[in-house]
Specification:
two-stranded antiparallel sheet; ELO_fam; 367 residues; 5 strands; 56% helix; fatty acid metabolism
Length: 367
């Protein structure tokens, strides 16, 4: 068995995904149920019914719609003056605790996800092993187009931490809308960047966790790291500790970088094919090309490479594919909005333009 495994030569290929995928928009009601995390592996247990209930599509869609509508209404009533509550000590204490809580929570998520990725990735089989670790994160999706002769133990990234930390990170997107409430309470309008960012994050995190899409790990670990730094900066600002302007500029640059790099990594999952090695930790597994791999489409509707029997696509079902597409589509305008904010806030031309706009007299409406 060991000799058979060692003689199996892994391979990778980057190619365009099949156009047939565009017609495979999944339905949450017909997709495979999301697998809750095991109770024994994490600091606390999440109720399976609660886990599933929050992944109902009506939850993120209704909350995102209500959030966007409320922001639009409150923006229209903004007169530049803070609400009375914004001047109280209770409000200031809440803002401090809010920022500190999110900084600590984001750091906890980053450490948890980093550990899960470290435990899941098998480097002993080189790049193909790493790719397989990040593509086939659950046993039932590992070997599309191949037959498994023997499998003993081993878990993937989903069970190692993505199911647990990813679901909680999805819920945190609902809590983060309090950022907008704080801004409005201070008498300021919520920008399009702010509103779009929060509403879109709810839906995209839902898609990644609901369909157990492998690339959602990119969003979790990158975003949790950036949020750790960002909310720590907000905490310092709340207690009036001076922060150099260069640091603020660097944080915005890091946010833009995470969108570009993270979005690119997520999109790359759409183009990767590989031959299974396999990567199961602590087990010896022999895989051979399946007879079904000679066809252009596998039994689950996912394509396999006709010219290289046994080579499978990184993603395993339409739900995983569309979760990636949704995140990339969301990140594209978000990146543009952040770049525009950077130019306006930190470049000489942007500052001049903003100052001129602020100094311009307000036109009275024609009667």
């Amino acid at each position: 068995m060991q000799a058979a495994v060692e003689s199996f030569i892994p391979s990778l290929k980057v190619a365009f995904p099949p156009s047939s995928w565009l017609a495979l928009l999944p339905s949450p009601s017909t997709a495979s149920p999301t697998i809750p995390p095991s109770a024994s592996k994490y600091p606390f247990t999440i109720s399976e019914s609660l886990y599933t209930a929050f992944l109902d599509p009506r939850v993120p869609l209704s909350i995102a719609a209500a959030y966007a509508a409320a922001v639009h209404l409150l923006n229209s009533r903004c007169n530049g003056k803070p609400y009375c509550i914004a001047t109280t000590r209770i409000f200031k204490a809440f803002v401090l605790l809010h920022n500190l809580l999110l900084a600590v929570y984001s750091l906890w998520t980053f450490i948890g996800m980093a550990g899960a990725i470290h435990r899941s990735i098998v480097t002993s089989r080189g790049v193909p092993g790493v790719v397989e670790s990040l593509c086939k994160i659950r046993p039932e999706t590992r070997f599309e187009g191949v037959e498994i002769r023997e499998m003993e133990g081993g878990v993937g990234l989903w069970e190692e931490g993505l199911a647990f930390y990813g679901w909680l990170f999805y819920l945190s997107k609902f809590y983060e809308v309090l950022d907008t409430a704080i801004i409005i309470a201070k008498g300021k309008k919520s920008s399009l960047l702010q509103t779009y960012h929060h509403a879109g994050a709810m839906i995209c995190m839902w898609a990644g966790i609901r369909f157990m899409s492998p690339p959602i790990w990119v969003f979790c670990i990158f975003n949790s790291l950036i949020h750790t730094l960002m909310y720590f900066y907000y905490t310092l600002s709340t207690v009036r500790i001076p922060v150099p302007n260069a640091l603020k500029r660097s944080l915005t640059s890091l946010q833009i970088t995470q969108f570009v790099v993270g979005g690119s990594l997520a999109a790359l999952h759409l183009f990767v094919y590989f031959t299974p090695t396999t990567y199961l930790p602590g087990s010896v597994t022999e895989v051979v090309p399946s007879s079904s791999a000679s066809a252009s489409v596998s039994r689950h509707g996912m394509p396999v490479d006709v010219k290289a029997p046994g080579m499978v696509h990184c993603l395993s079902n339409p739900g995983e594919v569309w979760a990636v597409v949704a995140n990339v589509v969301y990140l594209t305008p978000l990146t543009y909005l952040f770049v525009s904010f950077f130019v306006e806030s930190y470049t000489k031309g942007g500052k001049t333009k903003r100052a001129a706009k602020a100094a311009a007299p307000t036109e009275k409406p024609a009667r």
